[in-house]
Structure formats: C-alpha cells, structure tokens
C-alpha cells in the first residue's frame, strides 16, 4: 500500500533510480540500436548499409570533403571512415579525386548514383522516425527531443575538451 503524500493522496514515491539516472544508459543505447536496425532495414532498397547514409548526407551538404573531415563531422575515427568510403566507392555512390588546391590530399565527391540516393535516404529516415514515434503524441516527441539534446549537451560538457563547440565527439572517447 502506498504512503499518502502531503495532499493526503496515495501515490508512488519517485524511485531513486529515476533521480540518479540508473538504467538511462542502457535504455538510450537500446533505443539507438533499435532505431539504427530499423533504419538499416529501411535503407536496404537503396543498397546502402548502416552508417553509409550519413556519409552521403554529409557530402550532399558539402561535397568534396577529405576522409578526415567526414570522420570529424560524423564523429567516427578516420580508419572507420576510410573503410566506409572504400565500400561506397565500390558501390558507385562516391568517388575520390585529388584535391585541386593540395595535391597531397584526396577529396570525396558524390557520384550521380550518390545524389540519386538522397530522396530514398530521406524517405527511409522519415519511415524510421514514424515507426519510432508510433503511439507518442507530438508533445511527447518534442519533449523526448528536448531531453535527448540536453543529455547530449551534458555528456559533451563533461568531456576533457569541454563543450561540444570545441570538444571531441563522445564516440571518440570510447
């Protein structure tokens, strides 16, 4: 039987777990994995795999980036990005070319096939978001986004290099 609170109403006490964040990491990680799995499934028709969509979207914003610049934008390590670019190049979505200003550098550009995949990537993302938000109100989704952004900022603020604007990606710390 629950204790009565100040108002004389019965109610549950806030659990210690909720106030200290216990279980938060596993819940966020599991949700992120599920979202990535669903997005991967929704991307199958495009011929892309998990992570490749981010590279194509980054190049759509700023074509002609180095592997290092792409890695920094997407918060992954350079060797991971180099492998991803190699796969995308073999699939015909990107091509590497020498940098026009610095011959020592190689820059990555979208091909026609890469540009043609943008609409399908966007639709896969929208479908995944609709699936994730099923049963949630618009207010719930807005609140969830606000809380996730606050968590992200909290995590970035506690990195050795400080806040996000000058700090490393959390993934680089793992």
From TrEMBL:
InterPro entries: ArsR-like_HTH (IPR011991), HTH_MarR-typ (IPR000835), MarR/SlyA-like (IPR039422), Tscrpt_reg_MarR-type_CS (IPR023187), WH-like_DNA-bd_sf (IPR036388), WH_DNA-bd_sf (IPR036390). Keywords: DNA-binding, Transcription, Transcription regulation. PROSITE patterns: HTH_MARR_1, HTH_MARR_2. Residues 21-153 form the HTH marR-type domain. It comes from the Bacteria. It holds the Pfam family MarR_2. SUPFAM superfamilies: Winged helix' DNA-binding domain (SSF46785). This is MarR family winged helix-turn-helix transcriptional regulator. It comes from Shinella pollutisoli.
């Amino acid at each position: 039987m629950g204790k009565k609170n100040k108002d004389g109403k019965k109610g549950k006490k806030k659990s210690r777990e909720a106030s200290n964040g216990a279980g938060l990491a596993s819940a966020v990680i599991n949700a992120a994995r599920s979202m990535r799995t669903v997005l991967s499934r929704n991307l199958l028709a495009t011929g892309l795999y998990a992570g490749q969509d981010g590279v194509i979207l980054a190049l759509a914003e700023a074509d002609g980036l180095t592997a290092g610049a792409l890695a920094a934008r997407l918060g992954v390590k350079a060797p991971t990005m180099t492998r991803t670019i190699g796969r995308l190049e073999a699939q015909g979505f990107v091509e590497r070319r020498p940098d026009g200003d610095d011959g020592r550098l190689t820059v990555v550009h979208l091909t026609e096939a890469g540009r043609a995949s943008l609409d399908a990537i966007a639709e896969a993302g929208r479908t995944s978001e609709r699936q994730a938000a099923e049963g949630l109100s618009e207010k719930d989704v807005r609140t969830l986004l606000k809380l996730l952004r606050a968590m992200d900022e909290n995590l970035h603020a506690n990195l050795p290099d400080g806040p996000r604007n000058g700090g490393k990606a959390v993934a680089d710390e793992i």
